[in-house]
Write a structure and sequence with these properties.
This protein is α/β, with parallel strands linked by helices. The protein has 13 helices and 17 strands.
Length: 408
Amino acid sequence: MKCRHCGSELKLPLVDLGSAPPSNAYLTEQTLQAPERWFPLRVLVCESCWLVQTEDFAHANELFDADYAYFSGFSSSWLAHCDRYVSEMVERFGLNQDSYVVEVAANDGYLLQYVQGRGIPCLGIEPTASTAAAARHKGISIVEEFFGTDLAKKLASEGKQADLTVANNVLAHVPNINDFVAGFAILLKPQGVATFEFPHLLRLMEENQFDTIYHEHFSYLSLTAVKQVFTTNCLSIFDVEEHPTHGGSLRVFAQHPDSGVHPVSSRVEKLLNRELKLGISNADYYADFQTKINQVKNDFLTFLLEAKRQGKVVAGYGAAAKGNTLMNYAGIRPDLISFIVDRNPAKQGKFMPGSRIPIVEESYIKKVQPDFVVILPWNLKTEVMKQLEYIRARGAQFITAVPNLEVN
């Protein structure tokens, strides 16, 4: 396989997670009776541009289909993060009723609802029919297509260039990262700003976040690699922020290279230097990740087997993609985790891909009264523990497996 950015031959492995079905391919009662499609799940590192990437087996149209079930608007902490983002961008860049904001991967309108609420004209681009429909229900204009240079040229020809483009948790999801990024250079007005948020590779490596690896994530991103991708595709980074979302993310700010509107913050060079010192551009940095994540898997599986031996009931919370990676790599099935609660009605009544564990509404926890609740989206641990605080009254405990096993 060749690097999806620079075309170099990929030889350096990061991790091999065996095989798994697409992480958002939730099963119904009907599809439960049929075979599932599983794909190898391996990650390689480019030793030329240091872009970390999954080996290609599944295509985007197989991963992001009409029944795509990931809706961003069900996490209160994430919604608060997006509301703050909009406020900050309005103040920093002077956005008003004469501005135009375009979000790529607008999902269910989780962010643009706050742009629209401030009276700023906006447009969402979202290829999955299920989430696009939810955004339209909020009154948000949506273009239901995958984004790239072709769509960017079309929108620009229609006078829809943007003062601000937003791309949250989507840069990792695109197979053709060059075409995707080049589209933003076309879509931006001459003095426009593009922001991108994505999980930081350093946090994945430092905190054993292997469950964030799944087929929908084609790339795992450092600022070092992103800077090269942007430079190649006519975008210039002028600022970067670190945020706690999704286990540790970067927010990158970019502009046209020749605009010079925004001076380059010292934070950019500081983070690039930090990555360099930690070894992001050195093959040795990636050498022992497999060993570390195998220990995480084994500790979690040992805990579940012991709970089973003692007759304890274990439930899960959050039918998240990261949970599917963890359970399929560990070989967990309904005998070890009886059910998984999720607030998203689009997932309730379905089954987790691979593990085939049933997904239910929260009332099921009160009915069954499990002894342990495994929080699969560990990045939302504080939010979930607060929401389910009532289980402690009868002695139940919370479990997280990543970055290491914790019982609370």
